[in-house]
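User: Okay, second chain of the day. Same drill as before: sequence in, structure tokens out.
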Amino acid sequence: MNNIKNYISEHKDRFLNELIELLKIPSVSADSAFEKDVRKTADQVKLSLEKAGCDLVEMCETDGYPIVYGEKIIDPALPTILVYGHYDVQPADPIELWTSGPFEPVIKKTDKHPEGAIFARGACDDKGQMYMHVKALEFMTSTNQLPCNVKFMIEGEEEVGSVNLGVFVKNNQEKLKNDVILISDTGMIANDIPSITTGLRGLSYVEVEVTGPNRDLHSGLYGGAVANPINVLTKMIASLHDEKNQITIPGFYDGVEDLSREERDEMAKAPFSLENYKKALDIDAVYGEEGYTTNERNAIRPTLDVNGIWGGYTGEGAKTVIASKAYAKISMRLVPNQDWESITELFTKHFLSIAPAGVTVKVTPHHGGQGYVTPTNSIGYKAASMAYNETFGKKPIPQRSGGSIPIVALFEEELKSKTILMGFGLDSDAIHSPNEHFGVFNYLKGIETIPLFYKYFTELSK
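Assistant: Same drill. Structure tokens below.
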């Protein structure tokens, strides 16, 4: 691509300012209080695609938040790339742990980002990475270097399970027809060690409720005489792992692929410092399933984690009660060949079966999705590898991710397309956490690299 570095240098301040304005809008899809802000963000995304050069941009309504669809078709005979991203963000809680306002973007230098990073909710996940694609399109259209067709599908419900995206995809297969799907919602190993995500874990997310007496009780008058739902819930949760930190749900590991020693050795070639990992998290030891390394535990093995637990009195001071109810939210990260709906059923059956007398238990499934593995011998992967190699000066490392993008498996099932995951964030960017950020280097490097994917994918498709 001619003059791409010059173009980015010339427009750098505008690129940053446009992203900062987008990050100011609190598009929290999980909280209905932010509905107007989520829709305002969708409007901004639509406007940005129009300005970037799309000939057609539509606001596609769903039963939830709208999907922004855009396209630039220069020749139906040429390949078509479908870009997926999301404009909604996670809640910012706990607000008090942010060093600056979650929706008041600021650029600050960090050890990993000496050139500065934008601190704001959604900076990396996924507004910053989504917007790289918008600016990459702007460069290609404004310099007349777009080598193929492009379509955009940007949704507003990824952080709540993409509950309406599946229906949209099934009902719009012709509109979304493509040769490859391109997503930037993952990361890479380091700014000097590019990598391409080749695998994602699936997800099953549930909420559990344990009910004991019909009201909160005085812990002195009733303590020891009736089942305490909080005590019961914590015991039930503790029983979900054994002494080797394996999950005890019967049938949970059925179908889990055991990678060969050769494959595990290949994974181990990725640079990783256990001491730096512990230091970054301020922990003195790692923890997980016996027999696996840290990188294996968070990429190729399934997990079960409590994401929230509550019940009883949690205010200031003391209130001596036995709560009537206790709750927890639990997520299970799954590997390919584990069906998320089957796992949800197994969890529900097991959790109900271990409830002691004196309480009732309710399990409410929320959302989930399948795991995914993309081949490294496809045209799409080769094009991505060539693009990274040109901009970073080294060949990217294939890497499986512990995260989940549930709709990727759906895309392959419905659209019959492979997905290429070109992420530019770092593990240290604190996505889903206070002080989320995205490096200025990473943002601009993404804008530089993405057009090269278009170039090489088109060339390799001939």
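The mean pLDDT is 96.

User: Thanks, on to the next one.
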